[in-house]
Design a protein that fits this description.
The complex is a heterodimer.
Chain A (H helix, E strand, L loop, with lengths): L13 E12 L2 E12 L3 E5 L6 H8 L9 E9 L2 E2 L7 H7 E4 L10 H11 L6 H11 L3 H4 L12 H14 L4 E5 L7 H14 L4 E5 L3 H7 L2 E7 L5 E8 H6 L4 H7 L5
Parallel strand pairs in A: 3-8, 3-9, 6-7, 7-8
Antiparallel strand pairs in A: 1-2, 1-4, 4-5, 9-10
Chain B lengths: L5 H4 L4 H37 L5 H5 L12 H32 L4 H14 L3 H15 L6 H25 L3 H9 L4 H29 L3 H7 L18 H9 L4 H37 L1
Helix pairs in contact in B: 2-12, 4-7, 4-9, 4-11, 5-7, 6-7, 6-10, 7-9, 7-10, 8-9, 9-12, 11-12
């Protein structure tokens, strides 16, 4: 079984439908015919060995990958049944409706407040900024730690706090989906657990897709797991997707089993 | 292998190795001493010759046939005019060109040729720019030997350096910040305006100040433009005639009377103080931003 096992899922429960997605860097094919569904208000983990295209796949969802010179994408990503790669769709719009959190915390060299307000400002937010900043920081479980120093530099925070600031910054523009690219890989174990429990809270209002190379993390945090592998040409392909519990206890594919039991990757 | 026969297989000769180290250390020291000594002798001589002639009226008086009454007023104001206008011309054009090359231009052979040529332009002798300015601004565009023609000529000289410094500053903005902004739905122009340019301003300022401080000391292109005029007024209009500090110094040095040597040296001291101040400001800006980015 190499394709989606959840194609029968109804539209209302599905946040993203990936259909025959191919990604290229110049002549190099990084992703090969990836198709699967990402359920709404759940955490979906993308796992697989280094270089298998997990991050590329994630960055295809909000059209960030095409910012890399030479990158090209074929296939469809359906977001609310609209293909984000349709010529009439503006990639900028996709990016504020599908937010992103990066591997290394990357706050702007601005105050905590201005970091969160940045997305509001550039997207012409018309409401109360103070209220929106507080709501976003609360959403990222950071408010209580920073409420008395909102005008200090974002760099003054610890690594874990910086990453939660980046999550708050993404939440401010009220996206439907939040993509996280190894969000805890640069953090210590305690900060990692904080980010993980935050993901579980976020799915009340958002859909979370997380790339991780940490299998325990995928098992702890996700509801659904997609396992990617790469072929002899180093092109990434989807091996299987399923409920995280099933993938980790009873994988359908022997390559998945080999990977999660640590025999390769 | 046993440690006992180590000595039969190695010949450490530590003493000789250390002597070599000391010889090279002495050579390195000598290099810095030679470089520094030249500078120290130069500065000492200028100070010795010029210090007696320094006074407040030297800064505020116009040039005179009598060394006791000569001052730099017109040269100082001329230099301020030239540098002010040059800065006003080069910063927008230089930063704009750098933003285009770094953020917008496709990476192809054409932009590579442009890049190489900008680097080459930065190495063109300044007199060439002076002659170009004489032909284009003074004569062709009929600006005359004016402040405007001088500042435009100086802008041509400084522009490549400002572009290169600005490009480096723009390149040092982490791509993760650009990505974060794109990820929030920023357009390309918003990324440039909100992230790239604000973060590169300290680097752009440092590079621009250093480039302008070199321009303050440039005599060759200004001699081509302004000729050696004996000015007893301060320019009040971009189309006025002007002189600048290096030309004034050059003028004084070439006078036969003994007193003008001292006056020239005093002029050099004033020029050096201006240059050191500008460089100090540039270093201060650089250090302050370095400290901030390390936090």
């Amino acid at each position: 079984m190499t394709t989606a096992d959840s194609a029968e899922m109804t539209g209302a429960d599905t946040a993203l439908k990936v259909r025959n997605l191919n990604a290229y860097y110049g002549a190099f094919r990084a992703l090969k015919d990836v198709s699967f569904d990402i359920p709404r208000n759940k955490v979906t983990a993308l796992i697989g060995p280094s270089g298998c295209g997990k991050s590329t796949l994630l960055r295809c969802f909000n059209r960030m990958n095409e910012l890399i010179p030479g990158a090209r994408i074929e296939g469809e990503v359906l977001f609310n049944d609209e293909n984000v790669y349709h010529p009439a769709i503006d990639p900028t719009e996709v990016r504020y409706r599908i937010g992103m959190v990066f591997q290394k915390p990357n706050p702007f060299p601005k105050s905590i407040y201005d970091n969160v307000a940045f997305g509001l400002r550039i997207n012409g937010y018309r409401g109360d900024y103070d209220e929106a900043v507080e709501r976003s920081l609360r959403g990222a479980a950071l408010w209580d730690e920073v409420k008395d120093r909102l005008h200090e530099s974002g760099f003054a925070l610890s690594g874990g706090q910086q990453q939660r600031l980046c999550i708050a910054r993404a939440l401010a523009v009220e996206p439907e989906i939040i993509l996280m690219d190894e969000p805890a890989s640069a953090l210590d174990p305690i900060a990692t657990l904080e980010i993980e429990s935050l993901m579980r809270e976020l799915i009340r209002d958002y859909t979370v897709v997380v790339v991780t190379h940490n299998m325990q993390q995928a098992a702890r945090v996700s509801d659904k797991t997609a396992f990617l592998n790469m072929d002899e040409d180093r092109a990434g392909y989807l091996v299987e997707t399923g409920d995280t519990h099933q993938i980790f206890t009873n994988p359908a594919d022997e390559r998945t089993e080999a990977y999660i039991t640590g025999r390769f990757g | 292998m046993a440690a006992a026969d180590w000595a039969s297989r190695f010949r450490p000769n530590l003493a000789r190795r250390k002597v070599w180290g000391r010889i090279w250390f002495a050579l390195f020291m000598l290099a810095i001493v030679v470089g520094l000594a030249g500078l120290v002798i130069l500065v000492m001589r200028v100070l010795y010759q010029g210090a007696p002639w320094l006074s407040f009226h030297f800064l505020t008086d116009y040039p005179s046939r009598f060394p006791e009454q000569a001052g730099m007023r017109s040269a100082i104001f001329g230099s301020i005019w030239i540098i002010g206008l040059t800065g006003a011309f080069t910063v927008p054009v230089g930063v704009g060109a750098a933003v285009y090359l770094e953020e917008y231009a496709p990476k192809n052979w054409l932009t590579r040729i442009i890049e190489v040529n900008i680097s080459n332009l930065a190495g063109v002798p300044s007199i060439v720019y002076g002659l170009l300015g004489l032909a284009v601004f003074v004569q062709l565009l009929a600006m005359g030997r004016s402040v405007l023609a001088g500042a435009l000529t100086m802008s041509l000289l400084v522009l490549p350096v400002v572009i290169i410094a600005s490009r480096e500053a723009i390149r040092s903005v982490p791509s993760s910040h650009r990505e974060a902004a794109y990820g929030l739905g920023a357009t390309k122009f918003q990324v440039v305006k909100e992230i790239v340019v604000p973060q590169s301003i300290p680097g752009i300022m440092t590079g621009t100040i250093l480039a302008l401080s070199r321009a303050v000391g440039e005599a060759a292109p200004m001699i081509a433009i302004s000729a050696l005029v004996f000015l007893t007024f301060v320019p009040t209009d971009p189309l006025d005639k002007f002189t600048v500090m290096p030309i004034q110094i050059f003028n004084w040095v070439s006078r036969p009377q003994e007193g003008f040597r001292g006056i020239a040296a005093a002029g050099i001291i004033v020029l050096l103080v201006v240059l050191l101040t500008m460089n100090a400001v540039a270093v201060y800006i650089r250090n302050r931003t370095q400290r901030r980015s390390e936090e």
